[in-house]
Amino acid sequence: MSLRKLAYLAIVASLTALIAFTTGCAPEEYEVNVQANPEEAGEVTSEGTYEEGEEVKVEAKSKEGYEFEGWYRDEEQVSQDQEYEFEIEDNKKLVANFIKKSHEEEYIRNRIEEELSNNWKMIKENLYSLMKDTVDDPKLSAFEISNINVKLSPNKKIGGECFRIRSCYVCFKWILQY
Question: pTM surpassing 0.70?
Fold first, then answer.
């Protein structure tokens, strides 16, 4: 066999090996499984197969009467946001936990919104009155009012922090919860 034929065969063999190697190195694929807990409490999206390194965004939306609590993997919370973004590195099973809203909490929220829309201000006494309407003993409630001074005026200030009117419930919840 001539040297020229040997060189030609070596080049062809090298190219064949190179092509076989590069086509055999497809990116790893991973599964993302998502579920709502309890199932009837909300909807979750973005379950599927993704290539390694790909950005994945899962989303949870609560249904009426429920509130999103957080995303969990193996019973460990990985995010408190309804939209959770991550880079896929392995198979993931994510659970979106939802909690049932209490009627007491909804009642308080509605009363606060009503009071604010009528008067543009709420004082500590309004909150005490609200609590007495809600439960027999305010101390047994899920909310605490003692030791706070709350005044919401047209500039919407609470404890020196500014909030929009739509955020008001969140800040009251933050102030009132144990």
Answer: no
